[in-house]
Amino acid sequence: MTDTPTQLFIGGAWVDAADGATMPVDDPATGEILCHVADAGPKDARLAEEAAVQAQEEWARTAPRVRSEILRRAYEIVLERTDELAHLMTSEMGKPLAEARGEVAYAAEFFRWFSEEAVRIDGGAGVLPDGRNRMLLSRRPVGPCLLITPWNFPLAMGTRKIGPAVAAGCTMILKPAPQTPLSSLALAAILKEAGLPDGVLNVVTTSRAGEVCEPLLRGGRIRKLSFTGSTDVGRLLLAQCADAVVRTSMELGGNAPFIVFDDADLDVAVDGAMLAKMRNMGEACTAANRFFVHRSVVEEFGRRLAERMGTLVVGPGTRDGVDVGPLIDAAGRAKVAELVGDAVERGARVLVGGRTPEGPGCFYPPTVLTDVDPGSRLMDTEIFGPVAAILTFDDEDEVVRRANDTPWGLVGYVFTEGLDRALRVSERLEVGMVGLNTGLVSNPAAPFGGVKQSGLGREGGRVGIDEFLEYQYLAVPVR
């Protein structure tokens, strides 16, 4: 931990908070304090804003190839430091080292992807239909951005936002989650090493998010907000963006349906369930939340899933052989336990897990519930834990209606061997992404995002850079 930066990163320099405040970073596996980092206040936010605003004009004029090569160097450095970054992430967030290494690779790929997109920003030209004017279209960076990232994928959510902003020519203030600031600070050090000019990226770690972010959003100099987090916080931030009409992209909560039809290959479906539920201990917005399984196969599916979940080893993420690390904090674990308790009180059967272990750390066992009452709280709450709640259905129309009966619409999973049904159901689901016979949809080359209250805009893919660019139309008379 001694080599990891713990100060704010403003204008290319590592600095303490103006008032000297610090905040602890805890190890969720032990409850012990790993270190203290600077705890920024409003004055620090203003300094970061000034640095980003001052750097914007020159950075926007920087050649696309230069921006591309900075991102490419950052991609290579991230991969070179896979083990170091993975251990850092596991220490502050809890996921097993194998998953943390996977996230490092995933995170690095956003830098590589947007290094390639940086040199493909184009416009257009043509004569307008009335023949009087030529139309020249150019694309330019939207301007200084505020990037707010969550704790569950602390490295990848940073690169998924920083990558397109750098490629587009935007300067940034990054505010990471207070639980996991170290990954973001390490990322800032890597980008500085890769040649990113001073002031282009500023990192403000804080436990005082409202005091730091609201003045930035209402002040008029920040022109773009990219936020990943809960829907409740997203609504609050959207309101704060209204005064200055700040452009927004929001990746918010999910309540993913996982649908298993009677003709599904159950081996494939259980494999998919393990991915969709247990990636990141279930602490993912893409996690399967509601398992709808056809009545004819529900007992067999539940038995197989419980067997697989029961073999997973729970423990500190740094320990060899561990499959499931701790949840992020005591509050997160208490929420999961309360949701399970409510479901059991309403008649759910526990096939495996379901009991909070004693001892230090924020651990919760992989849990499978069946015969879940549709009125249970975990049916309309993002669980964010290793709990699979199984419900039964009888026909296609019924399950589509129930799957769509939620204000969220991020991702859905469909398991069936029938091509017509697969396409038909996927098209009827009110979600931004569908995993068809797979439990993993995230990929830097694909657009990530949802509909309804799961967010606005898309991250990743060819369209990911669009969120950081504006069009300018130039009319030139035809003479």
UniProtKB/TrEMBL annotation:
Top EC group: oxidoreductase
Entries under SUPFAM superfamilies matching the protein: ALDH-like
Top-level lineage group: Bacteria
Matches recorded under InterPro entries: Ald_DH/histidinol_DH, Ald_DH_C, Ald_DH_CS_GLU, Ald_DH_N, Aldehyde_DH_dom, Aldehyde_DH_Superfamily
Enzyme Commission code(s) on record: 1.2.1.16, 1.2.1.20, 1.2.1.79
Active-site positions on this chain: 251
Keywords of the record: Oxidoreductase
Pfam families, alphabetized: Aldedh
GO molecular function: glutarate-semialdehyde dehydrogenase (NADP+) activity; succinate-semialdehyde dehydrogenase (NADP+) activity
Aldehyde dehydrogenase domain: residues covered: 14-472
Recorded family membership: Belongs to the aldehyde dehydrogenase family.
UniProt-recorded name of the protein: Succinate-semialdehyde dehydrogenase/glutarate-semialdehyde dehydrogenase
